[in-house]
Amino acid sequence: PEEQTFALIRPDAAKTHKDEIMKKVKEAGFSISKIKEQALTREMAAEFYKDHEGKPFFEQLVDCMAQGPSVIMVLSKENAVEEWRQLMGPTDPEEAKKTCPESIRAQFAHDILSNAVHGSSNLEHAQRSIQFAFGELDAD
Ligand code: CMP
Predict the structure, then answer these.
(1) Ligand 1 midpoint to CA 106 (Å)
(2) Which is it for strands 69-78 and 2-9: parallel, antiparallel or unpaired?
(3) Taking a C-beta distance cutoff of 8 angstroms, is the pair 113, 2 a contact?
(4) What is the pLDDT of residues 77-132, one digit of tens each?
(5) Sign of torsion, CA 9 46 89 97?
(6) Using a 6 Å cutoff on CB, does residue 58 contact ligand 1?
(7) Which of 17, 110, 118, 125 is catalytic?
(8) Hey, which of 67, 100, 113 would you mutate to test ligand 1's pocket, going by the most ligand atoms within 8 Å of its Cβ?
(9) From 1.10.530.10, 3.90.1210.10, 3.30.70.141, 3.90.1150.10, which CATH number describes the 2-134 domain?
């Protein structure tokens, strides 16, 4: 079934590789249902990465996400959550270069922390992040 995922080009890549990443998004057959450019607040960054709260890199991760404008999107496609994760590739670009050389992280990520793109890990997180970034004020 058609699915929506939450996807984001992180500040490190939004500056330098936005057009190339958007080209890959379109070539992979995603529809861009919503898109905006916005610098995240630290609060928003912490929400998107709440699963990683408490990890040693969490503060750095949040800083890195709030350092400049991101490209924030809702992508639609069959199996969108999983397909976007595959297009991003593994978290660590060094691993991505070996195992998924066509992936966004293999081609455009700087290192494991500044790794070019974000994507939701499951449908529930996707819906929460979409609501958080674009949402109307629905009660939940
Ligand atoms: P992602 O997998 O999309 O979501 C969690 C993020 O935390 C990950 O991308 C990296 O940006 C960051 N991250 C994960 N593991 C590490 C690590 N070992 N060192 C630094 N940053 C990390």
Answers:
(1) 15
(2) antiparallel
(3) no
(4) 999 999 999 999 999 999 999 999 999 999 999 999 999 999 999 999 999 999 99
(5) positive
(6) no
(7) 118
(8) 113
(9) 3.30.70.141
Q: Write the residue with the smallest CA distance to atom 3 of ligand 1.
A: 118
**Annotated catalytic residue 17:** no
Taking each helix axis from N to C terminus, what angle separates 123-134 and 80-88, rounded to the nearest 10 degrees? 90
Q: Tokens 């610098």 appear where?
A: 39
* Ligand 1 pocket test, candidate residues 10, 51, 52, 110, most atoms within 8 A of CB: 52
